[in-house]
Design brief:
It contains three helices and no strands. The protein is an all-alpha fold. The radius of gyration is 47 Å and the shape is rod-shaped. The chain starts with a helix and ends in a 23-residue tail after the last helix.
């Protein structure tokens, strides 16, 4: 298909215009790239010279003291808990367990058990004879010393556990350590 001369001239003219527009667009894009590079350099300078010192100052004045106070409180609470456990709870529990083991060892001693049995049996026999002589009907046997030893063991163990729990759970004013006055106001809460 053949184009007329007039159409070919118009197409040629349009190609030239498109080429001119394309070169103008390249120049505009190059200029935009230069402006963006300059703007990013200025933004980095402003961030380094103005913003970073302000952020650092705000962090050091407002955030860091709170973090330091929190860490100090946690450390002092952990230290107080550790010392309470090692000074109060552990000795009480070990003392109660030691008493219980001693009572069990005594109860396991064959000679002592035999002596207790014979004393209990002779006591029952004497009570029965005395009751028969006085005219009482039969005397019911009473619990022996072993029963009282076991009851005592239970009471000592329960007391030891109760004391350990009380020492662990009681409110202790020594757990709260006041912050040193560095010129920074510290908020304190009222203790119950």
């Amino acid at each position: 298909m053949g184009l007329s001369r007039k159409r070919r001239r118009e197409i040629k003219k349009l190609r030239g215009s498109a080429s001119d527009v394309w070169s103008e667009q390249r120049e505009v894009l190059d200029h935009v790239a230069k402006v963006l590079r300059a703007a990013s350099r200025e933004a980095a300078t402003v961030a380094r010279d103005d913003v970073a010192p302000r952020v650092k100052s705000a962090y050091e004045k407002r955030i860091q003291p709170g973090i330091d106070a929190g860490v100090g409180s946690v450390r002092s609470a952990a230290s107080a808990t550790r010392s309470t456990f090692t000074d109060d709870v552990l000795p009480a529990v070990s003392g109660a367990l030691g008493s219980a083991i001693a009572v069990l060892d005594i109860a396991r001693n064959k000679q002592l058990r035999d002596a207790l049995k014979s004393a209990s049996a002779s006591g029952r026999e004497l009570a029965t004879r005395a009751g028969q002589r006085v005219g009482l009907i039969e005397v019911k046997p009473k619990p022996g010393p072993g029963t009282y030893i076991l009851i005592g063991l239970g009471v000592v163990a329960a007391a030891g556990i109760a004391y350990a729990a009380w020492q662990t759970l009681r409110a202790d004013d020594d757990l709260w350590v006041e912050a040193e006055d560095d010129g920074v106001p510290v908020e304190t809460s009222a203790k119950p």
